[in-house]
Amino acid sequence: MAPENTPPALSEEEIIRLIATLAGEGGGDLAVGIGDDAAVLGGPAKGLVVTTDLLVEGSHFDLGFMGPAAVGWRAMAANLSDLAGMGAQPAWGFLSLGLKAGPSPRFVEELAGAMVDLGQEHGLVLAGGDTVRSPQLIINLCLMGRMGGAAPLLRSGGRPGDAVCVTGGLGGSAAGLAWLQAGRDPDQQGPARAVAAFTRPQPRLAAGRALAQSGRVHAMMDLSDGLASDLARLTRASGLGAKVEAGLMPLHAGALAVAAELGGDALAWALNGGEDFELLFTCDPGEVGLLAELVAEAAGGLAVTQVGRLGPGPGVALVQDGRERDITMGGWDHFREDST
Amino acid sequence: MAPENTPPALSEEEIIRLIATLAGEGGGDLAVGIGDDAAVLGGPAKGLVVTTDLLVEGSHFDLGFMGPAAVGWRAMAANLSDLAGMGAQPAWGFLSLGLKAGPSPRFVEELAGAMVDLGQEHGLVLAGGDTVRSPQLIINLCLMGRMGGAAPLLRSGGRPGDAVCVTGGLGGSAAGLAWLQAGRDPDQQGPARAVAAFTRPQPRLAAGRALAQSGRVHAMMDLSDGLASDLARLTRASGLGAKVEAGLMPLHAGALAVAAELGGDALAWALNGGEDFELLFTCDPGEVGLLAELVAEAAGGLAVTQVGRLGPGPGVALVQDGRERDITMGGWDHFREDST
Questions:
Q1: What's the pLDDT score for residue B25?
Q2: Which residues of B touch A23 (CB under 8 A)?
Q3: Backbone φ/ψ region at A191: left (φ over 0), alpha (ψ -120 to 50), beta
Q4: Which of the four CATH numbers 3.40.50.970, 1.10.1740.10, 1.10.260.40, 3.30.1330.10 does domain B8-146 have?
Q5: Are the CB atoms for A106 and A99 separated by under 8 Å?
Q6: Could you give the ipTM of this predicted complex?
Q7: Which residue of B has its CA nearest to A148?
Q8: From the CA of A70, how many Å to the nearest CA of chain B?
Q9: Considering the entire predicted model, what is its pTM?
């Protein structure tokens, strides 16, 4: 029994809190430290935001269900989405790659090529990295972005009574994965939209910048773990709670198509599926219409939907068929449960 | 047979070149991209340097030979050493951690605590990161530093006839590992110095800054893979070659002690062992004395030794007992050979 496996075990949130405590307050040249989508630097690096994400084969992706290009694309999308969640403009990226022995040129080209392509689409330059040998594929991206004068949008800015809004449709990515795992035809009309949401998610950078530049958004983050978990993080950071309505949830068209074919639950995918990489934000209820217009204009018609309100809390409640139930965090944790 | 294992396989250097080609030239806001110890940012982030390193249990460290504190310390030291190799002052760090299921508080505290401690010693603030579940321990650090007005020292600045110099003693880290692998007493006088060089290496940040601020160093990098590999990289980046003399090599006192006990070769550890995290730099031969004084003053008496000269090249030759042999790269590659 290795020492690191001895109980009591820590949850993911407890590990982050422990490291944040060890790291201390940070000092004058760090405006926002551990705990938001990205860190906000200060001093001579004012206006720079930095985010990092580690993806491990087996935990985060399975090369049996997708090729190296999809893996690379999704890794870059997840990190760009963290910059979108602050309202930042991508600038520089650093890629650490753990590869099995004897990688083929084609594998590396497809993997790194997809990352570079998606990054360049959003103005990101791959500026450095590290390449090592590893028992499984490992991808770490560390991305830096610029705020361009706007204030970074944090999770902690929510106010009581705020409208809770999301961009786009939810649940598509999880539905796409379920479709692939069921071994069904990835090109079948309807479900193909969910497959695309899973293999080629589109981070909402233009929408994020428009929302940051509007000066009217109180709190924002990207949706990477599902609304139940991510809204719980936003409400906790804001010292509030939230109530969302099942009937208002903008379910992804691909998720509805997959649910109809496989008998799955599109609402569950939207709440707990994760990796939709849409934006979650709060604002005065009277501003939703204006912000929806700004987002549609900046991001090619992307929809904004109000799904609920912030309240005294704590926790996140779902209202469905006149009944309320607690959906805080969706019970999901990498470390405590075998939920991979 | 997985697709990524199909021949022809790429070497580590070929992978880096392939990714650099895919990434392209970078554009106006990147002064130095893929290929040096760290990237040098431009535009509004002028004067910032960024480096990243990925460490994977089994490939880079073995928890059987060292505890989590030594693993954390060495990971931070390796990254800080890359900043030292540019002459930068550490500022912000981002830690991605892959942990097995059910990590204990003590394991995480020792691992992250050692990283935070060494970072703080050098002015680094841990500003963010990511924590995920993984089959083995994975550590990725992405560190940012500031040049504070000095020009970053690159690998490519070497000039024909330059003196090739190193700080400190070489081979201690590899000797310490050999001592631990042999199951010998880590506290035995003599070898204990090699064990300390392995478990608690000291990155040469003060020396690196003094050298950068002197304006008299032509090329610099840190010694992470051994002189044979790292000098080959410096000479290639400078379009030159080098000749070093075995008799001039500053062998680490702990390496000599371990070699005497185990019958190992201290010179081989110095040339090919790696992870000494000393500095390698080149300058006019007439400046070595002055630079040695600057380093000694800035870094508590740290020694500078001239070990050879840059010449037309290519490649790195070792002169020993009047004979010359090619030691370029020491034949070492993570991907092509089972050299872990």
A1: 66
A2: 112, 116, 125-127
A3: alpha
A4: 3.30.1330.10
A5: no
A6: 0.87
A7: B44
A8: 14
A9: 0.89
